[in-house]
């Protein structure tokens, strides 16, 4: 990674943002004189660190310094390859062109995939509903102010439960890639002190749902919901999509997982 260095000077700032210990390296930009300064700090430094933190959080792992260093360096190397989606020229909301549909999950009559991404103080949540044949039943996105990534993921599950009740779906599975939320709801105890009200409401909703099961799946099997959440955040598009928009989405889905 020519032109990039890890500076010890950024440790305290990065760790204060992570809310953990004291040995994380910050990503800096070096100038033509081969030195680093505060004015050259990556503007996306915080985004990279948050992405790595959330990745560990989703998989239920504790924050490990070598893992954080490695993933941040990979993100920096690939940062220039990220291309934001373009607006649809026909006036339709440009739902992502390709979304992978997981095949190695236990399918039921209705399958609700939920996810959330964090943007500042807000969580962008998504509900992606598929039938047993992988056809899209419903796609919805929303923006909600949250106090933590845990609350955002919990809000996504809560919204999925609400849609199930409103639509009166039966034999339903809810899939989330946030292991701490799924484990907490399964055990009936919230590991996040900032979410007692929403946690209890969601737990009660799950008890009311007929023939409904909540399951954890790894991030790679939830790429459809995750990509939609990231896309909605980039395009500021928060809505329940129309049948016409969903039809376009179905036509461009990638079923080869």
UniProtKB/TrEMBL annotation:
<dbReference type="InterPro" id="IPR002156">
    <property type="entry name" value="RNaseH_domain"/>
</dbReference>
<protein>
    <recommendedName>
        <fullName>RNase H type-1 domain-containing protein</fullName>
    </recommendedName>
</protein>
<feature type="domain" description="RNase H type-1">
    <location>
        <begin position="125"/>
        <end position="232"/>
    </location>
</feature>
<dbReference type="InterPro" id="IPR044730">
    <property type="entry name" value="RNase_H-like_dom_plant"/>
</dbReference>
<dbReference type="GO" id="GO:0004523">
    <property type="term" value="F:RNA-DNA hybrid ribonuclease activity"/>
</dbReference>
<dbReference type="InterPro" id="IPR036397">
    <property type="entry name" value="RNaseH_sf"/>
</dbReference>
<dbReference type="Pfam" id="PF13456">
    <property type="entry name" value="RVT_3"/>
</dbReference>
<dbReference type="InterPro" id="IPR012337">
    <property type="entry name" value="RNaseH-like_sf"/>
</dbReference>
<dbReference type="GO" id="GO:0003676">
    <property type="term" value="F:nucleic acid binding"/>
</dbReference>
<dbReference type="InterPro" id="IPR052929">
    <property type="entry name" value="RNase_H-like_EbsB-rel"/>
</dbReference>
